[in-house]
Amino acid sequence: MPDTDSVPTLTGSHRVPAPRSSNSPTGAIRTLGSNPVTAPIMLHPGDAIPAARRVVYIVLLGALTALGPFTIDLYLPAFPVLEADFNTTAAAIQLTLTGTTLGFAIGQLIVGPLSDKVGRRVPLIIVTALHVVASILAALAPSLILLGVARVLMGMGAAAGGVVAMAIVRDLFGGKRLVVMLSRLALVSGVAPVIAPLIGSALLVVMPWQGIFLFLAFYGAIMLVSTVFLIPETLPPARRSGPGSATLLQRYRSVFSDRIFVGVLIIGAMTFSGLFSYLSASPFLFQQGFGMDPQQYGIVFAVNSVGIVIGVQTASRLAARFGPQWVLAFSTAALILSSAAIIIGDVAGGGLWALMIPLFIFMTSCGFTFPCVQVLALDRHGKSAGTAASLIGAANFGVAGFISPLVGLISEGSGITATTMASVMVGCAAIGAISLWFIVRPRTVAQLAP
Fold this sequence. Notes:
Elements: E1 6-8, E2 15-17, E3 21-23, E4 29-31, E5 41-42, H1 51-73, H2 79-85, H3 90-118, H4 121-140, H5 144-172, H6 175-206, H7 210-230, H8 237-241, H9 248-256, H10 259-289, H11 294-322, H12 324-347, H13 351-378, H14 385-403, H15 406-410, H16 418-440
Antiparallel strand pairs: 1-2, 3-4, 4-5
Helix pairs in contact: 1-5, 1-6, 1-7, 2-3, 3-4, 3-5, 3-14, 4-5, 4-7, 5-14, 6-11, 6-13, 10-11, 10-13, 10-14, 10-16, 11-12, 11-13, 12-13, 12-16
C-alpha cells in the first residue's frame, strides 16, 4: 500500500500533510472531510493531487522523459555531415547511435532497481549530471571513437529520465488513471521526436555539428536544476525497506516469472527495434536516396513523428475502454502490414509517397503499442515499478541497439533503400505479434481496475 501519511508536491523535496484518512475494507483510502461518509475514496496517493499541480507534474516528468528522444533524434540530420567530417562510412556513423542505445540499456538497468532501493531523486540527479558532462565531451570529441564513447555515456545519462518518470507515475497512480497519466506523459515526451530533428537541422545552419551536443548539455543542465528544486520524492523510506520490500534478485525474479510481463517486454523491444531501424536508416534514405537537405529531412521526420503522438493519445482512450491487450492486437497487425507495404511500394517503384504513407501508419502503430506495453507491465508490478520500468527501457534500447545496424550491414556496398529498411521492420513486427498471441495471450489478461 503506498504511503499515505503525506502527498508529494511540486515544491522540491518538501512534503505537506495529506488530508486525514482511514482505511476502507477494500484497502482504499478515504479522505476525511466534514462528512466522512460522503468523502471521496483515494485509491492511490496521486488521486489527492490537485489537477493544476498534476499538469505541472506531468510536464516536468515529460520533459525529463524527452531528454532521451532529444539525445537520439537531435543529431540525426547531421549523419551525412559526420560521415564526411570523419571520412568514414554510413554503417560506422550508425554505430554511434547503437552506442547511445546500449548506454540507455545499461543506464536503465542500473537506475531502475537503484531507484526502488534508495528513492527516485538521488539516482535521477546523479545520472542527469552525467548526461551534461558527456554531452560536452561529445562536442569536443576529435575522433569517431571518442564520439562513440561519449554517446554511450550520454545514453546512460539520459536513461534516468524515462525510467524514474514512469516509476514516479506508478508510485502515484494505478488502474485506468495510470493509463491516462502515462498517455499524458507520452504526449509531452512525444513532442520531442517531432521537434528534435527540426531543431537539429536549424542548428546545422548556424553552427557545426558540435553545437548540437552543446545544446543537449544545456537542456540536460535545465533538467538537472528542475530535478533538484521541483521533483519530489515519491518513494518514502518505509516502502524501500519495510514489509513487502524485496532484494534486487527477488524483484527481478518477480517480474520475469510473470508470463504477461515477459510477453509485453518482447513486444516493446521488437516495436522499438523496428522504429530504430527507421531512425538509423532515414537520414541516409531521405537525404542521399531522395536528395533532401537536412532541413527538408527534418520536416519529413517531424511529420512522421506526429503519428506516434496520435497513436499514443488514441491508445489511452481505447485501452481504458477495451483493455490494452486488445489495442496491442490491432497495433501489432498494423505494424506488419504497413512495413510490408513499404517493401511492396519500393519494389513497384512507387517513389516517395509509396514510402511516406505506410511509414506514417507504422509510426502511428508504434504510438498505439508503447503505452499499452507500459501499462500492462507497470500495473502488475507496482512494488517494483523502477525495476519493471528499467527492464522495459533496457530491452527496448538494448535489443534495438543490436538490430538497427542490420539495415546498414544489409545495405553495405549498395546503399540504404526503403526495402532494406522495411525488411528489418517487418521481421521485428512479426516477432512482436507472435509474442502477443503465444506468450501474452490477450484472452487471459484481466481487465484494468477502475
